[in-house]
Protein backbone atom coordinates (compact mmCIF):
# COMPACT_ATOMS: atom_id res chain seq x y z
CA UNK A 1 0.00 0.00 0.00
CA UNK A 2 1.50 3.39 -0.96
CA UNK A 3 2.39 5.71 1.88
CA UNK A 4 0.16 8.73 2.18
CA UNK A 5 2.17 11.87 1.41
CA UNK A 6 1.66 15.07 3.39
CA UNK A 7 4.09 17.86 2.58
CA UNK A 8 4.23 21.63 2.53
CA UNK A 9 2.67 23.48 -0.37
CA UNK A 10 4.64 23.96 -3.55
CA UNK A 11 6.75 27.09 -3.97
CA UNK A 12 5.19 29.94 -5.87
CA UNK A 13 7.87 30.06 -8.52
CA UNK A 14 8.45 27.47 -11.21
CA UNK A 15 11.87 27.40 -12.89
CA UNK A 16 11.97 29.09 -16.26
CA UNK A 17 13.52 27.64 -19.36
CA UNK A 18 17.27 28.13 -19.47
CA UNK A 19 18.40 30.75 -21.98
CA UNK A 20 21.91 29.49 -22.63
CA UNK A 21 23.27 26.18 -21.45
CA UNK A 22 22.69 24.59 -18.09
CA UNK A 23 23.89 25.76 -14.69
CA UNK A 24 24.57 23.70 -11.60
CA UNK A 25 22.28 24.13 -8.58
CA UNK A 26 23.05 27.05 -6.30
CA UNK A 27 25.59 26.50 -3.57
CA UNK A 28 23.68 25.49 -0.46
CA UNK A 29 25.38 25.47 2.94
CA UNK A 30 22.95 22.83 4.16
CA UNK A 31 23.98 20.49 1.35
CA UNK A 32 27.69 20.27 2.04
CA UNK A 33 30.22 17.84 3.38
CA UNK A 34 29.84 17.07 7.06
CA UNK A 35 26.15 17.94 7.24
CA UNK A 36 24.13 15.45 9.26
CA UNK A 37 20.45 14.60 9.07
CA UNK A 38 18.19 12.42 11.20
CA UNK A 39 14.65 11.13 10.91
CA UNK A 40 12.77 8.00 9.91
CA UNK A 41 12.10 5.66 7.03
CA UNK A 42 8.67 4.08 6.90
CA UNK A 43 8.98 0.43 5.92
CA UNK A 44 5.38 -0.57 6.66
CA UNK A 45 3.62 -3.26 4.67
CA UNK A 46 0.15 -4.78 4.66
CA UNK A 47 0.96 -6.87 7.72
CA UNK A 48 2.35 -4.24 10.10
CA UNK A 49 3.35 -0.63 10.63
CA UNK A 50 7.09 -0.17 11.00
CA UNK A 51 9.54 2.73 10.91
CA UNK A 52 13.30 2.76 11.30
CA UNK A 53 15.25 5.63 12.76
CA UNK A 54 17.77 6.86 10.22
CA UNK A 55 20.89 9.04 10.38
CA UNK A 56 22.57 10.38 7.24
CA UNK A 57 25.86 12.22 6.86
CA UNK A 58 27.19 13.76 3.65
CA UNK A 59 30.81 12.81 3.01
CA UNK A 60 31.39 14.26 -0.44
CA UNK A 61 29.65 16.87 -2.60
CA UNK A 62 30.52 18.17 -6.06
CA UNK A 63 27.68 20.33 -7.38
CA UNK A 64 29.50 21.08 -10.61
CA UNK A 65 29.40 17.42 -11.62
CA UNK A 66 26.11 16.59 -9.89
CA UNK A 67 27.68 14.15 -7.45
CA UNK A 68 27.47 13.54 -3.73
CA UNK A 69 28.03 10.62 -1.40
CA UNK A 70 27.56 9.77 2.23
CA UNK A 71 26.64 7.22 4.85
CA UNK A 72 23.25 6.08 6.07
CA UNK A 73 22.73 4.48 9.46
CA UNK A 74 19.50 2.57 10.14
CA UNK A 75 18.66 1.96 13.79
CA UNK A 76 16.17 -0.40 15.45
CA UNK A 77 16.31 -2.72 12.44
CA UNK A 78 14.60 -6.05 13.30
CA UNK A 79 16.97 -9.00 13.78
CA UNK A 80 20.02 -6.70 13.62
CA UNK A 81 22.27 -6.64 16.67
CA UNK A 82 23.78 -3.29 15.70
CA UNK A 83 22.76 -0.26 13.63
CA UNK A 84 23.18 -1.03 9.93
CA UNK A 85 25.47 1.39 8.09
CA UNK A 86 25.63 1.71 4.31
CA UNK A 87 27.64 3.87 1.95
CA UNK A 88 25.64 5.62 -0.78
CA UNK A 89 26.34 7.71 -3.85
CA UNK A 90 23.94 10.25 -5.26
CA UNK A 91 23.00 12.00 -8.49
CA UNK A 92 21.91 15.63 -8.38
CA UNK A 93 19.28 16.24 -11.04
CA UNK A 94 20.48 19.51 -12.58
CA UNK A 95 19.43 18.65 -16.19
CA UNK A 96 23.12 18.99 -17.14
CA UNK A 97 24.71 15.96 -15.53
CA UNK A 98 21.52 14.06 -14.71
CA UNK A 99 17.93 14.34 -15.89
CA UNK A 100 14.58 13.49 -14.34
CA UNK A 101 14.76 10.01 -15.84
CA UNK A 102 16.87 7.38 -14.06
CA UNK A 103 17.39 4.93 -16.96
CA UNK A 104 18.81 2.23 -14.64
CA UNK A 105 18.27 0.38 -11.36
CA UNK A 106 15.14 -1.27 -12.83
CA UNK A 107 13.27 2.05 -12.84
CA UNK A 108 11.16 2.95 -15.86
CA UNK A 109 10.21 6.48 -16.86
CA UNK A 110 6.74 5.76 -15.47
CA UNK A 111 8.28 4.74 -12.13
CA UNK A 112 10.28 7.97 -12.10
CA UNK A 113 7.24 10.15 -12.74
CA UNK A 114 5.11 8.33 -10.16
CA UNK A 115 7.72 9.04 -7.51
CA UNK A 116 9.04 12.55 -8.09
CA UNK A 117 5.63 14.01 -8.86
CA UNK A 118 4.75 13.19 -5.24
CA UNK A 119 7.01 16.11 -4.33
CA UNK A 120 4.82 19.26 -4.50
CA UNK A 121 7.89 21.31 -5.35
CA UNK A 122 8.57 19.31 -8.52
CA UNK A 123 5.17 18.09 -9.70
CA UNK A 124 4.49 21.41 -11.55
CA UNK A 125 7.44 20.58 -13.83
CA UNK A 126 5.82 17.46 -15.25
CA UNK A 127 4.62 19.01 -18.52
CA UNK A 128 8.04 20.39 -19.39
CA UNK A 129 9.77 17.15 -18.42
CA UNK A 130 7.41 15.19 -20.69
CA UNK A 131 8.31 17.53 -23.57
CA UNK A 132 12.11 17.42 -23.41
CA UNK A 133 13.07 15.53 -20.27
CA UNK A 134 13.37 18.85 -18.44
CA UNK A 135 16.56 19.74 -20.30
CA UNK A 136 15.34 23.27 -20.94
CA UNK A 137 14.66 23.97 -17.26
CA UNK A 138 17.01 26.21 -15.29
CA UNK A 139 17.17 24.80 -11.77
CA UNK A 140 20.20 26.84 -10.67
CA UNK A 141 18.19 29.09 -8.33
CA UNK A 142 15.38 26.71 -7.48
CA UNK A 143 14.81 26.46 -3.70
CA UNK A 144 14.67 22.66 -3.86
CA UNK A 145 17.12 20.07 -5.17
CA UNK A 146 16.00 16.74 -6.62
CA UNK A 147 18.41 13.83 -6.18
CA UNK A 148 18.68 10.06 -6.41
CA UNK A 149 20.62 8.18 -3.73
CA UNK A 150 21.87 4.64 -4.38
CA UNK A 151 23.35 2.56 -1.57
CA UNK A 152 26.52 0.83 -2.75
CA UNK A 153 27.89 -1.14 0.19
CA UNK A 154 27.12 -2.47 3.64
CA UNK A 155 29.82 -0.98 5.86
CA UNK A 156 29.48 -2.94 9.09
CA UNK A 157 27.44 -6.03 8.20
CA UNK A 158 27.69 -8.71 5.53
CA UNK A 159 25.48 -9.16 2.50
CA UNK A 160 23.93 -12.15 4.28
CA UNK A 161 22.31 -9.88 6.88
CA UNK A 162 18.85 -10.40 5.39
CA UNK A 163 18.55 -6.81 4.16
CA UNK A 164 18.70 -5.51 0.61
CA UNK A 165 20.15 -2.37 -0.94
CA UNK A 166 19.03 -3.23 -4.45
CA UNK A 167 16.76 -0.19 -4.68
CA UNK A 168 17.40 3.55 -4.49
CA UNK A 169 15.90 6.75 -3.11
CA UNK A 170 14.13 9.61 -4.87
CA UNK A 171 15.03 12.61 -2.72
CA UNK A 172 13.76 16.18 -2.45
CA UNK A 173 16.02 18.55 -0.50
CA UNK A 174 14.95 21.98 0.78
CA UNK A 175 17.69 24.60 0.51
CA UNK A 176 15.94 26.82 3.06
CA UNK A 177 15.82 24.50 6.07
CA UNK A 178 17.74 21.38 5.03
CA UNK A 179 14.74 19.08 5.33
CA UNK A 180 14.67 15.95 3.18
CA UNK A 181 11.71 14.00 1.87
CA UNK A 182 12.22 10.88 -0.15
CA UNK A 183 10.78 7.60 -1.38
CA UNK A 184 12.60 4.30 -1.60
CA UNK A 185 12.06 2.40 -4.84
CA UNK A 186 12.65 -1.33 -5.20
CA UNK A 187 10.24 -3.41 -7.29
CA UNK A 188 10.72 -6.27 -4.82
CA UNK A 189 10.05 -4.26 -1.65
CA UNK A 190 7.09 -2.40 -0.16
CA UNK A 191 6.31 0.54 -2.46
CA UNK A 192 6.74 4.22 -1.58
CA UNK A 193 8.69 3.75 1.65
CA UNK A 194 8.91 7.32 2.84
CA UNK A 195 12.12 8.89 4.10
CA UNK A 196 11.82 12.02 6.27
CA UNK A 197 14.95 13.75 7.57
CA UNK A 198 15.82 17.05 9.20
CA UNK A 199 19.18 18.74 9.54
CA UNK A 200 20.84 17.73 12.81
CA UNK A 201 24.38 18.92 12.60
CA UNK A 202 26.42 18.13 15.68
CA UNK A 203 29.92 17.74 14.31
CA UNK A 204 31.19 18.50 10.84
CA UNK A 205 34.03 16.69 9.17
CA UNK A 206 35.11 16.61 5.56
CA UNK A 207 35.49 19.19 2.86
CA UNK A 208 33.98 19.98 -0.52
CA UNK A 209 35.88 18.82 -3.58
CA UNK A 210 36.61 22.39 -4.63
CA UNK A 211 38.75 22.76 -1.49
CA UNK A 212 40.87 19.77 -2.48
CA UNK A 213 42.49 20.79 -5.74
CA UNK A 214 46.08 19.61 -5.85
CA UNK A 215 48.56 22.45 -5.48
CA UNK A 216 52.22 22.56 -6.46
CA UNK A 217 53.18 22.56 -2.78
CA UNK A 218 51.40 19.22 -2.42
CA UNK A 219 52.88 17.66 -5.56
CA UNK A 220 56.35 18.28 -4.15
CA UNK A 221 55.64 15.64 -1.51
CA UNK A 222 54.62 12.97 -4.02
CA UNK A 223 51.31 12.23 -2.31
CA UNK A 224 48.51 10.05 -3.66
CA UNK A 225 44.77 10.47 -3.15
CA UNK A 226 42.06 7.89 -2.61
CA UNK A 227 38.29 8.09 -2.70
CA UNK A 228 36.49 8.54 0.60
CA UNK A 229 34.46 5.36 0.22
CA UNK A 230 37.60 3.23 -0.06
CA UNK A 231 39.05 4.70 3.12
CA UNK A 232 35.70 4.53 4.90
CA UNK A 233 35.34 0.84 4.16
CA UNK A 234 38.97 0.13 5.07
CA UNK A 235 38.50 1.71 8.50
CA UNK A 236 35.20 -0.16 8.92
CA UNK A 237 33.32 3.12 9.14
CA UNK A 238 35.77 4.68 11.62
CA UNK A 239 34.81 2.19 14.28
CA UNK A 240 36.07 2.94 17.80
CA UNK A 241 37.67 -0.50 18.02
CA UNK A 242 39.96 0.52 15.13
CA UNK A 243 40.95 3.75 16.92
CA UNK A 244 44.64 3.97 17.79
CA UNK A 245 44.59 7.40 19.40
CA UNK A 246 43.83 11.10 19.02
CA UNK A 247 46.27 13.89 18.18
CA UNK A 248 46.17 17.59 17.53
CA UNK A 249 44.84 17.12 14.01
CA UNK A 250 42.28 14.43 14.72
CA UNK A 251 41.78 10.71 15.31
CA UNK A 252 44.07 7.95 14.04
CA UNK A 253 42.70 4.58 12.92
CA UNK A 254 44.26 1.20 12.18
CA UNK A 255 43.80 -0.28 8.69
CA UNK A 256 44.93 -3.59 7.18
CA UNK A 257 45.29 -3.37 3.40
CA UNK A 258 43.19 -6.10 1.78
CA UNK A 259 45.75 -7.08 -0.86
CA UNK A 260 49.14 -6.93 0.88
CA UNK A 261 47.82 -7.34 4.47
CA UNK A 262 50.08 -4.44 5.36
CA UNK A 263 49.09 -2.38 8.39
CA UNK A 264 48.83 1.39 8.03
CA UNK A 265 47.53 4.24 10.14
CA UNK A 266 44.82 6.54 8.82
CA UNK A 267 44.61 9.98 10.37
CA UNK A 268 41.30 11.79 9.92
CA UNK A 269 41.72 15.52 10.19
CA UNK A 270 39.08 17.32 12.24
CA UNK A 271 37.54 20.72 11.51
CA UNK A 272 38.01 21.45 15.20
CA UNK A 273 41.77 21.37 14.71
CA UNK A 274 43.51 24.73 14.98
CA UNK A 275 46.35 23.50 12.80
CA UNK A 276 46.28 23.93 9.04
CA UNK A 277 46.24 21.33 6.28
CA UNK A 278 49.76 22.15 5.14
CA UNK A 279 51.08 21.61 8.66
CA UNK A 280 49.16 18.33 8.72
CA UNK A 281 50.73 17.07 5.49
CA UNK A 282 54.16 18.38 6.49
CA UNK A 283 53.96 16.31 9.67
CA UNK A 284 53.20 13.13 7.74
CA UNK A 285 55.95 13.80 5.21
CA UNK A 286 58.48 14.32 8.00
CA UNK A 287 57.47 11.03 9.61
CA UNK A 288 57.74 9.23 6.27
CA UNK A 289 61.23 10.62 5.69
CA UNK A 290 62.36 9.08 8.96
CA UNK A 291 61.58 5.78 7.18
CA UNK A 292 59.02 4.38 9.53
CA UNK A 293 57.53 1.20 8.08
CA UNK A 294 54.27 2.66 6.80
CA UNK A 295 52.51 5.92 7.36
CA UNK A 296 49.05 6.71 6.07
CA UNK A 297 46.85 9.74 6.33
CA UNK A 298 43.31 10.59 5.37
CA UNK A 299 42.12 14.08 4.67
CA UNK A 300 38.41 14.70 4.29
CA UNK A 301 36.98 13.36 1.01
CA UNK A 302 40.25 12.11 -0.43
CA UNK A 303 42.80 9.86 1.23
CA UNK A 304 46.54 10.36 1.05
CA UNK A 305 48.91 7.48 1.80
CA UNK A 306 52.70 7.80 1.95
CA UNK A 307 55.49 5.63 3.27
CA UNK A 308 58.16 3.07 2.53
Characterise this structure.
It is a single chain. This protein is mostly beta strands and 308 residues long. Helices cover 13% and strands 32% of the residues. The chain has five helices and 14 strands. The chain has helices at 109-116, 126-132, 216-219, 228-234, 277-289; strands at residues 36-42, 51-62, 67-75, 84-92, 144-154, 168-174, 180-185, 193-199, 225-227, 243-246, 250-256, 263-269, 295-299, 302-306. The chain has an eight-stranded antiparallel barrel. Strand 2 (51-62) and strand 3 (67-75) form a beta hairpin. The longest helix has 13 residues, at 277-289. The protein is globular, with a radius of gyration of 21 Å. Mean pLDDT is 75; it is low at 1-12, 203-214 and 291-308.
Distance between the termini: 58 Å
Which structural class fits the helix and strand makeup?
A: mainly beta
Figure out the total of helices: 5
Strand order of the largest sheet: 1-2-3-4-5-6-7-8
General form? globular
What is the C-alpha radius of gyration, as a whole number of Å? 21 Å
Question: Helical content, roughly?
Answer: 10-25%
Q: In this structure, how is the largest beta sheet organized?
A: 8 strands, antiparallel, barrel
